[in-house]
Amino acid sequence: MAVSEKQRIRPERFISVDVETAGPTPGDYAMISIGACPVDEPERGFYVELKPDRDAVVESALEVSGLKMETLAVEGTDPRAAMEEFAQWIRDVVPPQTHRAVFVGFNAVFDWMFVNEYFVRYGIENPFGHGGIDIKSYYVGMMGSTWEQTSMRHLSPKYLSGRPLSHNALGDARDQAELFRRISEDAAALRTASTQATEAS
What we know:
CATH superfamily: Ribonuclease H-like superfamily/Ribonuclease H
Number of helices: 8
Strand order of the largest sheet: 3-2-1-4-5
CATH class: Alpha Beta
Order of helices and strands: HEEEHHHEHEHHH
Largest sheet: 5 strands, mixed
Radius of gyration: 18 Å
């Protein structure tokens, strides 16, 4: 019996994800930490620091995170094990039989690029599939802003009481979740106002 369109559509759950890396590209530089949380349940977090599988380093990238390659080489989690743990956490938070996990990131193309590459590299199915939601692009579409106006120096005073990102992957994932919730609330208010204006005309 054919599966109806309604049966195929699973409820979505948004997962905020942030990574810290040793450089700008996953083919050349290691992903060194992953943080994630459900947008609607940020206290339920995931965090892991990875043993580097690449030696190349951009020092300014390490300065941002404060992580050290030498320490991670000893204390970090094996990358395959780390990605298996991450995939299992996603399945626990978003059961794939009933729901769909949606990747949410701040400049998501960067974070998704590393996460997907590591899932592929270690032969693990990416629970997010081949896409995600970029908070910066969402804001441009909602507000008609410039790309420059999506930087944290513009958005943090408006939505996060002016606090900067910590560059701890889990801390940033939680801040991103709050940012996405607040922007979504503004988007809902704009839709309501637009509907009311249309009905009144």
